[in-house]
Write a structure and sequence with these properties.
about 180 residues; mainly alpha; Hypothetical Protein Ta1238, Chain: A; two-stranded antiparallel sheet; 4 strands
Length: about 180
């Protein structure tokens, strides 16, 4: 099988239901979700399996679910069976609570970082927020799986929680934003 088809040379790509411009909002939405997936692999590659086996397992599952989300977004406006479900969102909430429990209580905004792994997870967080924004834009014009938007919203919180858990496991303190008062109670 050849990896190139030459069918996209004119700036069009195939999606469920036909061909669209490569910068179509639908392509932007699932393409940005794919970017998140690639950065998740970057974070996993930085993990020590003896310290982060649970995180590797959860992040690998998230990679599969991000692929599912991309598939759901590729068929926006084409009512079909979707793969991203409310149960996935609920499970993310459980994982957020578990990882958040490993980190110290947060009172102020914190700066992204800590070590290379935590920084990679914060990059996943901000890319997920961008993907969510693209999905919001898409959903204004076309029917989408609402669970994808909810999933991405929760996923960015997950990345925040797991990045802080990484720092806690390594004994690295979060750097509080010094111009912030207490905003979390």
């Amino acid at each position: 099988m050849k990896l190139y088809t030459r069918t996209g040379d004119a700036g069009k790509t195939s999606v469920v239901g036909g061909r669209v411009d490569k910068d179509d909002i639908r392509v932007e939405a699932y393409g940005t979700t794919d970017e998140v997936n690639a950065f998740v692999s970057e974070a996993i590659s930085r993990m020590d399996p003896s310290k982060h086996a649970d995180m590797i397992r959860d992040l690998t599952e998230i990679q599969h679910e991000l692929f599912d989300a991309g598939g759901d977004l590729a068929q926006a406006g084409k009512k079909r069976d979707y793969q991203v479900t409310a149960e996935m969102v609920s499970r993310l909430e459980e994982w957020i609570d578990r990882y958040n429990g490993e980190a110290p209580e947060i009172k102020r905004f914190i700066l992204p970082g800590g070590n290379a792994l935590s920084s990679a997870l914060h990059i996943c967080r901000v890319l997920t927020r961008r993907a969510e924004r693209r999905v919001v834009t898409l959903s204004r014009d076309q029917e989408t799986n609402e669970e994808v938007r909810r999933y991405l919203n929760r996923l960015s919180d997950f990345f925040f929680a797991i990045a802080r858990a990484v720092n806690a496991r390594e004994g690295i303190k979060d750097v509080e934003y010094k111009r912030s008062g207490d905003v979390f109670r």
